[in-house]
Amino acid sequence: MRIEKIADKMVYLDNTFTKRVLFNEEKVLAFVLNLKSGQELPPHQHEESDLVLHVIAGKGELTIDGKVNSIEVGDAIHCAGEEMFSLKNNGNENMSCFVVIAPRPSPKAYADEFGDK
């Protein structure tokens, strides 16, 4: 068993969104996505894996297969692997999302952290 502090993974950079991995296990990947106002995660798919996203700070727009949805703190979203997914912080505050992907995607890049440390 491991316990991680989500607050330690809420890191924001001016030049890009950040991704900080909490757990990279054989069957599941969990991380925190952090976006400053105006930043966005480009459209992509998770192929064979489903994604669950929980907004833990801020608000924004989640686009799934071209449909734009407003999301805010407390919202939980499920996205199937074949759905095209993007995220944008269109609010004035920092935005963070706790994300779980299962099964863990096979491309190694999905488990990499993003944004300078």
From TrEMBL:
It holds the Pfam family Cupin_2. It comes from the Bacteria. Keywords: Metal-binding. Residues 32-100 form the Cupin type-2 domain. InterPro entries: Cupin_2 (IPR013096), GPI/OXD (IPR051610), RmlC-like_jellyroll (IPR014710), RmlC_Cupin_sf (IPR011051). GO terms for molecular function: metal ion binding. This is Cupin domain protein. It comes from Clostridium magnum DSM 2767.
